[in-house]
Write a structure and sequence with these properties.
The protein is an alpha+beta fold. Helices cover about 20% and strands about 25% of the residues. The chain has 1 helix and 8 strands. The protein has a 4-stranded antiparallel beta sheet with strand order 2-1-4-7, with no helix packed on it. β1 and β2 form a beta hairpin. The N and C termini lie far apart (about 50 Å).
Length: about 110
Amino acid sequence: MFVNQHWRLAGATCAALLTAGLAGGCSDLGRTAVGPVDHLTSGDRVIQVNNPVVTGCHRFAPTGARAVENGTLVDLIAYPTLNCSGANADYIATTLTDTISAGNPPWRSYRFVH
């Protein structure tokens, strides 16, 4: 009987650890880049997004961004495309600002480096 109880306790412990491990593995699904991402549109309008999620591709205003201030705690990459892909991307580290160079298209999307 003692052996039977031991195996039940071991099984319960393993199940608890497995559940905790799976929950921990999914815990960053809603994680945010704490702080604001500000961008200046081609019409000189400032748009601020606070605490965006770190996953996925985010879009700037429809006219794009000609300047970006990354006030979050996570570095980001800005792209001239709508889907966070392609060449001419710019890396904007946490707490830094960047502007597009003359003759280049505005940034249309961004994603976080995590």
